[in-house]
Amino acid sequence: MAETPGFNQRAQHKIVVPSSVPTVSLLGSGDELLRVIERSYPDVDVLVRGNEITMTGDPDQIAEAERALDEMVAVVRTGLGLTPEAVERTVAMLRARIAERPADVLTANILSNRGRTIRAKTLNQKRYVDAIDKHTIVFSIGPAGTGKTYLAVAKAVQALQAKQVTRILLTRPAVEAGERLGFLPGTVSEKVDPYLRPLYDALHDMMDPASIPRLMTEGTIEVAPLAYMRGRTLNDAFVILDEAQNTSPEQMKMFLTRLGFGSKMVVTGDITQIDLPAGTDSGLVVVEGILDGIEDVHFSRMESHDVVRHRLVSKIVDAYSRYDADHAAGSLVSPRPDRPPRRGERRRVSGGRS
Hints:
alpha/beta; 4-stranded antiparallel sheet; 12 strands; 39% helix
């Protein structure tokens, strides 16, 4: 049924939720998932009575809202719970007109452990995971919180369990924001441990923690600084280089040439968080230009909308990207133009020079 009062076309459509799908699972406790749909499609009025959902408003928005509900039904039917974040990602994927079904992206299992299943949560994450299956060397470049390292470790554990590889090697360069190893107390092992801690944490999420010391003693799992890779050939291994933006071009070449038969390599990093000394090029920045066009090497990009931490993290990433873009263009405008510049701060003046 459609009406056309003046120039404002409005339509009405009724959806009957299948009896096999609990309405509370679809709409959320206190209708929190329904609220996401209402916020996403502000020109649609939604009325729920029993298992019937009536939508009135803009025909195009109604059609897309109905598709979003269809995808939500498909997820619920797999037995998975929906979250507001998952509904927001479903809407974003529909608006992006992707070829994949959002429900397929959100329900593809990677690894299960102790009652917990690890899955990709965004389209770029799903494409990244698929690329690891298809290619020998995969680079994942993007902001913090996009699951680059976590998903790589999940795929490494999956490969080990499936006996596709005989060992996992996790490595990072021992360079961090302004700190040097010499300032840390203890032995060399104790000094580098804080740099490797995120890799240990990911492993503990995906394996029985009691088995990890044994596997490390046997050499099945190795977590070590990048410098320990020099001079080795890594056969039948799943090798992950994390925080690769803090490698030099020479270190990146050294790492990549460790590749042996039957191995996979995943390199992750965020080129906006380089902690190398001034004047030192990042190996992750230059490597794409060097390896572009080489078969079986894949570059996967993550964006702020792939952040799966607190929703503020995505906004923080975007804010810093805008700040960096302004400065790269020579803009030194204060984020608060109503206040006077602080000491040493210059402000761009329209039509003049600062």
